[in-house]
Amino acid sequence: MARILISGLTKSYTGNGAALSALDLDIKDNQFVTLLGPSGCGKTTTLRLIAGYMTPDAGTIRVGDRVISSAEGVAPPDKRGMGMVFQNYAVWPHKTVYENVVFGLKLRRIPSEEARRRVLETLALVNLTGLENRFPAELSGGQQQRVALARSLVVEPEILLLDEPLSNLDAKLRERMRLELKQLQRRTGITFVYVTHDQAEALALSDQIAVMHGGKLQQYGTPDDVYRRPANKIVADFMGIVNFVPGIARGGETIEIDGVEMRSPHAGGLVPGEPIDVAVRPENVRLSRDGADGKRLTGTITEKTYLGNLIEYWVQLASGAVLRAQTHPLEQFDPGEAVGLVIDAQESSVFPRGEASPSTKH
């Protein structure tokens, strides 16, 4: 079993304060888990602590029933049953693909015939069959990343740690490699722990996402949970485009925006009359040419951006608030045009106005 149980994990750097504060995380066996957040949020520190490159100030890391890290001691990286894939590939330029991949097996004194079998099987797994005699300079960036993957997989780790491995690839190759990584994790059944700052990557790859900010875990859940049901404004803001629209709680599940009442299942527990911010995704705003009827908000198109598969609009409400909305490219409006808006409050999160935003909460 390769379940990773992290309890109270804390790490500080001299002069910089806590990089990680009392992290609790339960990574189940055979899952693809992503540590997601902006620079300085603690995600890479967490990965390095899991890998055994650092000693925590407090807390423990367990794999199965074994404590592998605590303030009292750390099992060395080569005794953890883990593989590591780095952002810069870290392949040896003077060695062939085969020599790069077989290196770890030689260190473990695996017999040459067995080593060759495992290398060729692993190269097939990452779609590098036939390239074993090439040098890294003769490979594309995606192929070099596959070599790094193969080198980690060939030693048959229980856990694979990946530190932003796709960030150096161009957009199309990155998208293709995302699919290959997910398929690879499913085929091997290895527990993947993946670090990225890219929300789309995290949503596409993960079984579970740990959203981190300011050295603390903000939310741990499925991609659907963290995108559609964010735990706070920090998560809502980080997980893609969002509008924070000012409103008022009216009691029960009723909220009011710009004089229009709507029902939201996320408004329970708020005090009637309390100022709120409603987190609205652009895809949950419907635009129309219908006028005000008490059920629609009204606004004016101020900006329009054509993005190919959709059109994005900036719409100014009567109150002065500005929303971003997205429509099908055949559904077009012009700057300066008055429009009606319907917000899908069922898919919108509601937060008290005083809750800290990403720019103020550390």
TrEMBL record:
Q: Where is the ABC transporter domain?
A: 4-239
Q: Which InterPro entries match?
A: AAA+_ATPase, ABC_SmlMolc_Importer, ABC_transporter-like_ATP-bd, ABC_transporter-like_CS, Mo/tungstate-bd_C_term_dom, P-loop_NTPase, Transp-assoc_OB_typ2
| Gene3D superfamilies the record matches | 2.40.50.100, P-loop containing nucleotide triphosphate hydrolases
Per UniProt, subcellular location reads as: Cell inner membrane
Q: Which domain of life is it from?
A: Bacteria
The name this protein goes by in its record: ABC transporter related protein
Question: GO: which molecular function terms?
Answer: ABC-type transporter activity; ATP binding; ATP hydrolysis activity
- Please name the SUPFAM superfamilies in this protein's record: MOP-like, P-loop containing nucleoside triphosphate hydrolases
User: What UniProt keywords apply to this chain's record, in alphabetical order?
Assistant: ATP-binding, Nucleotide-binding, Transport
Report the sequence similarity comment from the record: Belongs to the ABC transporter superfamily.
Q: Might you report a single GO cellular component term?
A: ATP-binding cassette (ABC) transporter complex
Primary site of residence: membrane
Provide the topology term for how it sits in the membrane: Peripheral membrane protein
